[in-house]
Amino acid sequence: MIEEEKSQASVRSGNQGGTMQGDTFSKVDEIIFSFIFPLYEQKKRQTTYVYRIIMIIWEIIQMFALSLYSVDEGTNEVDRISKVVGYLDGSQLSLILGKFMPYLNIVIFGLELAMIILIVVCCFFLRYILANQPWLLTFLRAYIEVKQRMLYIWITNINISSFDCYIDEDGLSHWRADNDILCFKSDILQIIGSVIAIINLIIFFAMSVILNVSIYNHNPKNGGLLSCPNGSFACLQNVLLFIIIFVMRIFYRWPFWRFLLSVGISVIIILYIVIVQPYYSFMSNFLSTLQWSIFESLRLCMEIGYIFETSMNSIIPTIIFIFIGIVLASAIFTSNYFMIKRRRRKLFFMKNGQPYINLRSQDWKVHSLPKIKDPNTVEPSVRFLQQKHNRTPEMYNYVDYIYTTAIKRHKQNAYLYFMYANFLCYYKKNFIKANSVYRQARISNPSFILRFVLYCKTKEEGRIGSESGS
């Protein structure tokens, strides 16, 4: 086929002069990557759709509870509504445990160490585990999924509760979990718990960044919900969520900054999702805005409601504004739905629902694609393949032409080669050519994170080859 020959010629031209150079990984890379490789998993067909839906619902529930968190500045006590819903996000667990909170911090620290030890064990004994105890890898991945992602808000809130203090009218700092204990003064257990909690947060936050930026499903065809071309948004989202939790818990005496940072960050995340479209599918992008839309609208209304509650000394205004916030969130849902859909259509390399170029026509050379100045825009422009009716040989050839045209302009862009290889692997099932393009990505000076993913692809290819050979 003419298009296939042109595609292969384009890749061969990129390979010339650098076939062998840079194709291997440095010793430092291999040592670092080998520790995270056991967590890497790319299923041929994603079967966790229901789990993803449950996770999204769970995140919405936690963000709903977090949006209602407030502290009465007069009494320094948690607001009545927050006391009820705070058990959903872990912020009020300290009220149950009180002075026994440090013991929970020690347990969390033990869980952190257990995770690190398991990762190290799987790194050194990976071949044995794959051959004899593969369930251990499944357990480790599930353990990390629950601890680092499902319980992200819970663990962050619990650790912050260990050093969440307030100053009374006499200038004394009291621990909110137990008012009789002065912060960092009268109780050794509280001091130890606070130190351990800070260590927990550092380890937990660092692991969250590493895992989110490096471990993700990049299968564009069968990756399921929340599959994405890279982990940058998941990492950014967790960093900003950490900031929001910290602001909500610590900035209780500065309502203006609490409002500005919490609502402002939510707006930024929603706009980022709408404009950048970090996930492959429309539904993934839309569902990702739900929790932030709820948090944004409820936080806005709750800040107003608390002003009326303080002046009227009644909880009724706050309850009314909660319902107003729910209505506002529904309006934002609808707005996000249409904005994401409109933006998505604009990103496509399509004109009136048809390709810019019909490769089957005789005069296709007369027409040309829009100039591809930014190689990062290529992958979002071909997401019309997410729609099953567009998965035809003609459309595949058109997408192939888009990628090879972009590669001619950006011959040294490793990320572009990686996206092209994913298309060849998951859509066209041309594994031989895909491996060649992955190899070209490796020698095109990829970023550190992309090098890790390419390292995993190389190891995975070698493992599958050895298994088939044996």
UniProtKB/TrEMBL annotation:
Keywords: Membrane, Transmembrane, Transmembrane helix. Residues 1-21 are annotated as: Disordered. The chain crosses the membrane at residues 49-69, 103-130, 188-211, 231-252, 259-280, 315-340. Coiled coil: none annotated. PANTHER family: GAMETE ENRICHED GENE 10 PROTEIN-RELATED, TINY MACROCYSTS PROTEIN B-RELATED. This is Uncharacterized protein. It comes from Streblomastix strix.
